[in-house]
C-alpha cells in the first residue's frame, strides 16, 4: 500500500482527524469542525462569537468576490449608522410586528461608578429616545433615500453596505445563528415594479451563481411561500442549500418590497411628467451564515474542505525540517516552489500559497491543514528536493477515492504548470459531489401521505421532498403551515427554474400551479 | 488665453466651485467640501454620519492598501464581538478611568408596545449585566488572547480587526469626530518588552509610510507626551499631520501597553524554562478620521483633490454627448480609450477608469468631478475623436500653475502610454505641495515667550512650533499642560527622527533631552 515514489505511508494509516463522525452526531461534528479547523469560538459575550483567522480568511475571500459582483452590477457601497432611533421602526407597522422584538436597545450614553467600586449606567445620561442596534437597515437607508431621490433621473438608486447587525437570539449556533453577525445588505430604489422586480431577481441570480461557483454549493433559487416572507415584503426569494444531514439552509434572500417602505420613509420621485410617485424598493442580503453552509456542505470526517476559490491558502507547502544544516537547502527549494506557484493564476487571481516553516513536524502540521481543509498540501522532504519533485495531497480525495487517497509524487515543474488546473478540478469536484448528493436526496411526492411516510422512514438524514401545490392563501395556507409544523417541516421555496406542474396540490387537491420544496431546516 | 488645440475656454473662466474659501472660514469650507464632493452627510442619528459612495470608495481604497501592509507583516485578521460586558472594563482600573465614561450602553434586549401604540424597551427583558458597544477592543481581545496563548511557542500573537466602534461624542464633526466610526485595530502579544516595542514601532512606521505614500500626507512620527497617553499604556506613539489651517491632526496611534492589560486579562505564557510569564501587549489603530486629514491636506477652493493611489476613479472620461446619432461613434471612441487605460497599471494595480455616460452636459459633469477631486479628467468631443486626441485636465494643477491650468490636448496613444506616469506625478506633486507647506509652517523656538509671541501674531493659520524640552513629569508636566491649555495649545509628539538637541527646555530651562511639537489641534 505504500506509494513507492514518495516512500510515505498512506495517509489512511491514521484514520480520521475528528472524534465525531457526521453519521453519528451531525450537530456535534459541526461544532468539532469549527473548533478543530480553528474557525471561530464562543466569545464569552452572550450569543456573539470570535471569528478566528481561518474563518475570517474564508469570509474575506467570500467578501472580495461577492463585492466584485455587486460592483459589476453598478451598485455602490455606502456606510449607514449602526444605531436606529426607535421611532424609525414605528413608521412601518408591519415591519415592527415582524422584527422589532428581540433587539439590542441602547438606553444610556454614560457609565459612572456607583460609589461601591462598580460601574453602572449613569441615570443622568439616559437617552431621550432609545437607539436600536440595527437588525437590518431598511428604515435608516430609507430615510437616506428620501433625501437622495428627487427625480426619475436619480433612479435606479443602487446601494449596498458591508456591516455587522444584531438580532437577539435565544438559541445560538456558530455562523448559523448568532446575535451579532456580518453581512452585506443591498438596498435599491426604482421607478416602477418592473425595475424593482428585475433587481430583486438579479440579486437572487447573483447569489445563486455565487453559491454554486465560489462556494461550490448547489442551491435552489425560488420564491418563499407567503408565510415565510420578510416582514413588509411583497415577495421574498431565497437560495436554499441542502446540508449533509438533509436539512435545508437558507443561504441568501432577496426581497421585492413594493412601495410599503417608500411610503413609510417618504421615498418619492418626480416622474418625467412632473407627478410625484413612490419608489419601488428592494433589499437583499447574504451573511457569515454562508460559512456554516460551506462547512455542512463540504466538511468530511477529517474536518473542513474549503473550495479553492474561497480558501485563504490554496496550497500549503510543508518542508520536512529536521533541525539540521540541510534544512537551509530544503527551505530554498520550497521558497522557489512558492514563488513559482504565486506566479501562476487560478480563477483569475494569483495562486495563494503558504510556506509553513513552523518548527513542528511536517506530519503533525499536515493534520492541522487537513482539518482546516486546504485544497492542496505539498510535503517536501530532502529526497523530493534532491529529485526535483513534490509530494502532493489533494484534500478532496482524502477518503473518497481510495486509489488516489495518498500522496502523489510529481516533478516540480509539472506540478507548478498544472497547479491552477488542479485547483479548478477540486472546485468542480466539490460541486459535483455536493450536487449529486443533493439530487439523490430530493424525492418527488404527489400526496401528503407520501410526505408523512417519507419523513417517518427509519433514515437519519432523509433529505427533501418536492411537491406540487396550488399556492393556497389565508386560512388554507395557515392549515398547511400547521400540518407541516407538526412534522417539524417547513416549505423552503418554489423554484424559479422547475419542470412544469401536472397534477394536484398535495395539500388542497386543487390543480397545482407550481412546485415547492419541503424540508427540515436550520 | 484659449488653448488653441482643444478649442476650449480656460477652466478658470468659471472660477471656483465652492462658495467658501479656505482662507475665509476653514471649518465651513471643510463641511462644504464634504457636501459638494458627496462624501458623507448627517444621518439623522445623533453623532452618526452616512458615508456616501465617494467617501466610502476612498475608505475602501485605503482599507485595501492598509490591509495589504498589515497582512505583509504577518498579522492575521479576526473579528471580535461588538458588545463588551461591563465587567470587562472594571478589570483594568486605569483603563476604566480614562475610557469608560461616554459610551453606548445596551440595557435591554426586547421592545414591546406600551399599549398606547408606541414601542418601549421591555422591562421584562432587562439584561442582568449591561453591554457596552465597543469603544476599542483591548478588553475583549485580551480575553481571547488569554485563551489562545499557552506557551512561548504561541508568541508573538498578531491580530487585527476592521470594525466599527462607538465613543459617545458631545460635539461631532464629520470624519474627524463621530460617535460611530470605522477603523482597524491591531492587537499583539509578545514574550518581552523588546518584542512588543519592536511591534509598536513597526506599526507606527507602517502608518507613517502609509500616510506619506498612499495619502500623500506628510506626517511626523513620534511619541506622545505622558499626559496624552492612551489610558493604561506605557508609551503612546502617533503620526501627526498639519492641516491647511495650521492645526495638527493625530492620524494614527500605536501603543506599547506593557504587562498591564495582560495582568487584567490573564494573558500568560510558559517560557522555555517552564515558568509562567505575563505577555507584553501592543495595540495600534487608524480610522475614517484619516479621510478628514486627506480633505484638509489636499482640498482646495474647488473641492477635494484625491491622491491617485486612493482615488476610487483615477481617470474619468466625459464624452461630450449631443443627443445625436454621432454620439454612438464618440462613445465607441471613449470605450476604446477606457479599455486601453484599464490595461495600464499604476501603483501596481490596473488604472481605475470611469466612462461617465450620464445624459447631462460634459461641462456640468466636469465640475462635479472637479469637486470630487478625480486626479485626471478627460473631456472628449467629436473633434477629439476624429483627430485621435484626448483633452486632459490635471486636477492638481487646476489653479496652482496658471500656465498648465487648462485642458491639454494629446494624441490618444501618447496619453494612454503616459497615464500611469501622470498619476504617479500627481501623487508626488500632492505630497511635495503638502510637505513644502508643512515645513514652511513649522517654526523653531527656544523660549516659551517665543511660543506666546508666535501664537499671538496676527496670522490666521500660524502652524506649529518645534521646541526642545526636558520631558518633565508629575507636577512639572501638569504645569506645562496648563500653561499651554491657556493658549489653546497641546504638545503633539516628540519626533523619533529629529535633529539632536542642543539647548535648554523652553518650560523648565533644564537641559533639553528631546524635541517636541506644539500646536493647536483637532
TrEMBL record, chains A, B:
Gene Ontology biological process terms, A to Z: prolyl-tRNA aminoacylation
Keywords noted in UniProt: Aminoacyl-tRNA synthetase, ATP-binding, Cytoplasm, Ligase, Nucleotide-binding, Protein biosynthesis
Entry EC no(s): 6.1.1.15
Catalytic reaction equation(s): tRNA(Pro) + L-proline + ATP = L-prolyl-tRNA(Pro) + AMP + diphosphate
Localization per Swiss-Prot or TrEMBL: Cytoplasm
UniProt key word Aminoacyl-tRNA synthetase: yes
Record-level Gene Ontology MF annotations: ATP binding; proline-tRNA ligase activity
Predominant location category: cytoplasm
A single Gene Ontology CC term: cytoplasm
Gene3D superfamilies named in the record: Anticodon-binding domain, Bira Bifunctional Protein, Domain 2, C-terminal domain of ProRS
Enzyme class: ligase
Residues covered by the Aminoacyl-transfer RNA synthetases class-II family profile domain: 38-307
SUPFAM superfamilies documented for this protein: C-terminal domain of ProRS, Class II aaRS ABD-related, Class II aaRS and biotin synthetases
Domain writeup: Consists of three domains: the N-terminal catalytic domain, the anticodon-binding domain and the C-terminal extension.
Family: Belongs to the class-II aminoacyl-tRNA synthetase family. ProS type 3 subfamily.
The name this protein goes by in its record: Proline--tRNA ligase
Organism of provenance: Novosphingobium malaysiense
Gene behind the chain: proS
Amino acid at each position: 500500500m505504500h506509494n513507492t515514489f514518495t516512500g510515505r505511508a498512506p495517509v489512511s494509516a491514521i484514520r480520521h482527524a475528528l472524534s465525531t463522525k457526521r453519521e453519528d452526531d451531525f450537530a456535534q461534528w459541526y461544532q468539532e469542525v469549527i473548533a478543530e479547523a480553528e474557525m471561530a469560538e464562543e466569545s464569552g459575550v452572550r450569543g456573539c462569537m470570535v471569528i478566528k483567522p481561518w474563518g475570517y480568511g474564508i469570509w474575506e475571500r467570500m467578501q472580495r468576490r461577492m463585492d466584485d459582483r455587486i460592483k459589476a452590477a453598478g451598485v455602490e457601497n455606502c456606510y449607514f449608522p449602526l444605531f436606529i432611533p426607535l421611532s424609525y421602526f414605528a413608521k412601518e407597522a408591519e415591519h415592527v410586528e415582524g422584527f422589532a422584538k428581540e433587539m439590542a436597545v441602547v438606553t444610556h450614553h454614560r457609565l459612572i461608578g456607583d460609589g461601591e467600586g462598580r460601574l453602572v449606567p449613569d441615570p443622568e445620561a439616559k437617552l431621550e429616545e432609545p437607539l436600536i442596534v440595527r437588525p437590518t437597515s431598511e428604515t435608516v437607508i430609507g430615510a437616506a433615500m428620501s433625501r437622495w431621490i428627487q427625480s426619475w433621473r436619480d433612479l435606479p438608486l443602487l446601494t449596498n453596505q458591508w456591516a455587522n447587525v444584531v438580532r437577539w437570539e435565544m438559541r445560538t449556533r456558530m455562523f448559523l445563528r448568532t446575535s451579532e453577525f456580518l453581512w452585506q445588505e443591498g438596498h435599491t430604489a426604482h421607478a416602477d415594479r418592473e425595475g424593482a422586480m428585475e433587481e430583486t431577481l438579479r440579486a437572487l441570480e447573483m447569489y445563486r451563481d455565487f453559491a454554486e461557483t465560489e462556494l461550490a454549493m448547489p442551491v435552489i433559487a425560488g420564491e418563499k411561500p407567503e408565510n415565510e416572507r420578510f416582514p413588509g415584503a411583497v415577495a421574498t426569494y431565497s437560495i436554499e442549500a441542502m446540508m449533509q444531514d438533509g436539512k435545508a439552509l437558507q443561504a441568501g434572500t432577496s426581497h421585492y418590497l413594493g412601495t410599503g417602505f417608500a411610503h413609510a420613509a417618504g421615498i418619492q420621485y418626480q416622474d418625467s411628467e412632473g407627478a410625484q410617485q413612490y419608489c419601488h424598493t428592494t433589499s437583499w442580503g447574504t451573511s457569515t451564515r454562508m460559512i456554516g453552509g460551506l462547512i455542512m456542505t463540504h466538511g468530511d470526517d477529517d474536518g473542513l474542505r474549503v473550495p479553492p476559490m474561497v480558501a485563504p491558502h490554496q496550497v500549503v507547502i510543508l518542508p520536512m525540517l529536521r533541525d539540521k544544516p540541510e534544512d537551509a537547502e530544503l527551505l530554498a527549494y520550497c521558497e522557489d516552489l512558492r514563488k513559482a506557484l504565486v506566479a501562476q493564476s487560478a480563477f483569475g487571481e494569483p495562486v495563494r500559497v503558504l510556506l509553513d516553516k513552523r518548527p513542528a513536524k511536517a506530519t503533525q502540521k499536515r493534520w492541522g491543514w487537513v482539518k482546516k481543509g486546504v485544497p492542496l498540501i505539498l510535503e517536501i522532504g530532502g529526497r523530493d528536493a534532491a529529485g526535483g519533485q513534490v509530494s502532493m495531497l489533494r484534500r478532496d480525495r482524502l477518503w473518497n477515492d481510495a486509489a488516489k487517497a495518498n500522496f502523489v509524487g510529481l516533478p516540480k515543474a509539472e506540478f507548478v504548470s498544472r497547479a491552477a488546473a488542479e485547483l479548478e478540478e477540486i472546485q468542480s469536484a466539490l460541486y459535483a459531489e455536493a450536487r449529486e448528493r443533493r439530487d439523490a436526496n430530493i424525492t418527488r411526492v404527489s400526496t401528503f401521505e407520501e410526505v408523512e411516510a417519507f419523513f417517518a422512514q427509519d433514515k437519519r438524514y432523509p433529505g427533501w421532498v418536492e411537491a406540487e401545490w396550488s399556492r393556497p392563501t389565508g386560512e388554507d395556507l395557515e392549515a398547511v403551515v400547521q400540518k407541516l409544523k407538526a412534522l417539524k417541516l417547513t416549505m423552503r421555496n418554489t423554484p424559479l427554474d422547475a419542470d412544469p406542474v401536472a397534477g394536484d396540490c398535495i395539500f388542497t387537491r386543487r390543480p397545482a400551479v407550481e412546485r415547492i420544496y419541503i424540508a427540515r431546516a436550520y
